[in-house]
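Q: Mind making up any chain with structure tokens?
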Amino acid sequence: MDKYGLIGYPLGHSFSISYFNQRFHDEDIDAVYENFEIPTIDILPEVLSQNPELKGLNVTIPYKEKVIPFLDSISPEARAIGAVNVIRVIHEGKNIKLKGYNSDVIGFTQSIEPMLEKKWHQKALILGTGGASKAIDYGLRNLGLETVFVSRYERPGTIQYERITPEVVKEYNVIVNCTPLGMYPKTEECPMLPYEAMDSHTILYDLIYNPDETLFMRKGAAQGAQVKNGLEMLLLQAFASWEFWHENK
């Protein structure tokens, strides 16, 4: 039986294990998907040696960037983004080769593109600076938008939350939350933004999918903003993961 899995820490919120095992059951695929909750990325070789039937992995926080030195090759897109969330495990005799990809960018761009109107949506704020935010930046720029990262800290090439004025929100009216703020169980939290400046031309996209509607989304929707959570992106990137694991077979 083939095995697939997810590496990250912690993994209590994981969507992938239920999605893939349900898919394997429904499509009569002889495979299983497991969570590998590892406290350090240095345990990855151990996971591979103890699970010789592994054919593919997904990677979640905090390892999307840290996993790259362990890979034998990486797709041009993942290299440009600087983050990997899919690994194909290739068995060549007794040797194992690991190839890294990024399906986040595929899932995100396919999910947000129908919401965008070129006339109104030309600039975006990306909340957060982690591995997921890099894929979001790559995707938005590919869709023709100008982007700015928002951080709590002073970092090169970022703007801080306290500097986001109503005028900034009017200009950068596509806002993507790549932070865990508002994720279950801390559902009463949200990024500090001037929500009162939002209107029907504002798009709030939250990578969080638990809860279905975050406080970030709720506060924007109250001003007439278009809102969307990360569930569709997750489904689309899961489809893409499967394609990467089985390319050229």
In short: DSSP finds eight helices and twelve strands in the chain. The mean pLDDT is 95.
